[in-house]
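Researcher: Here's the sequence for the chain we discussed earlier.
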Amino acid sequence: MSTYFPGAGEIARKWYVVDADGQILGRLAARVARILTGKENAAYTPFLDTGDHVVVINAEKIRVTGLKSEQKMYHRYTGYPGGLRSEQLRKRSARRPEAVVEGAILGMLPKTKLGRAMASKLKVYRGDKHPHAAQKPQALKLT
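Model: Thanks. This is the structure I predict for it:
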C-alpha cells in the first residue's frame, strides 16, 4: 500500500474572505496561517503547498491585547552606522495597518521557498473593498 500524495492538478484551492474587524491580531494570524499552510485541508502534506487563498479585509480595525500598542516595537536597520529605526505598533498601524496584519501572519509561516509560495496566497486590505470578487471567495467566520 503506497501513500497518497496529491498531484499539482489535484489540489483544489478555495478562496476565503476574513473580516478582521474587532479580531485580536495574534489569534487571527494563527488561524489564517493554518489555512495558508493547508493544515485545515484533508489532503495536507508537509512538503507540498496545499493551502488556500485568504483575503483579509478591515485590517485597520484589528485589536491587540494588553499594552502591546505602546510597548511592541518594530525595528529595521538602514545599513548605515546608527541606522536603527524603531516604530511603535500604534504608529505603524495608523500608518500602514496592512503591514501589521501581513507581518504577523507571515511570521507564522515557514521561512523557506514553500513558505514564500504560501505567503503569495495572502492578500490584506485596509478597508472592506477588495478586487477578488471574480474568485467568489467564501466568508470565513473566525471564532
